[in-house]
Design brief:
The protein is an all-alpha fold. It contains 8 helices and no strands. It is globular. The protein starts with a helix and ends in a 5-residue tail after the last helix.
């Protein structure tokens, strides 16, 4: 588990290559919706790499900017919480949405709402709170999440893929994933004495000089 807490996003980067390879090999047989859902999963992997590896300062931004934490290397977001949110909730839901595709459009809708929530947070909320023009995760939100959101709406409309039940379940689940699966989980798993500490590189530059991890 220690390795996973430190490198799950690197593993995600490797998995993105496998998914893109799968898409390439099966491109002609995939429906538009199936293709979109696999690309949505890939967009999640890319987004997490930007947040935690290349730039990598998302944890520090969340703890310092959003929660005004005095110990941004571990509170309230820590490496264990990040693992649970991004892998056990994020990867699993996006993967199942791609795997079942048209058989579970409601789940696809829920994951797209997570992508939408991320896009709004990274492009508007985090920059306003942090008085910045960029934050780790913003670029992939605009380049990958936003197009997936657009084409999801376009495809389900043109192909008549959803019924009322899909909307009800999808929207409610999407709200739950955004609020409970992300925000509340950060609160529930917060521990000022945790040993699950982020590396110095995951903090904002101004916080690194006081960090010894």
């Amino acid at each position: 588990m220690k390795f996973l807490r430190k490198h799950w996003f690197d593993i995600g980067g490797f998995l993105s290559i496998l998914v893109l390879g799968f898409i390439y090999l099966n491109f002609k047989t995939l429906t538009n919706y199936q293709l979109l859902m696999w690309l949505s999963l890939t967009s999640l992997f890319f987004h997490q790499l930007e947040e935690y590896r290349f730039v990598g300062t998302f944890p520090g931004m969340i703890n310092t900017v959003m929660y005004k934490s005095k110990i941004p290397d571990r509170y309230p977001l820590n490496t264990n919480t990040s693992l649970y949110i991004n892998v056990f909730i994020g990867w699993l839901s996006y993967f199942i949405a791609a795997l079942f595709a048209e058989e579970a459009v409601w789940l696809g809708m829920a994951t797209i709402m997570v992508s939408l929530g991320n896009t709004i947070a990274h492009t508007i909320v985090f920059n306003i709170k942090g008085k910045t023009i960029y934050n780790a995760g913003q670029l992939t939100s605009l380049l990958f999440f936003a197009p997936c959101i657009y084409f999801f709406i376009k495809i389900i409309d043109e192909d008549n893929l959803v019924i009322t039940k899909d909307f009800l379940i999808g929207i409610l689940l999407g709200i739950a994933l955004n609020i409970i699966g992300v925000l509340k989980l950060i609160d529930w798993m917060a521990d000022k004495n945790t040993t699950y500490i982020f590396d110095n590189r995951n903090l904002l530059t101004k916080d690194r000089k006081n960090n010894i991890s």
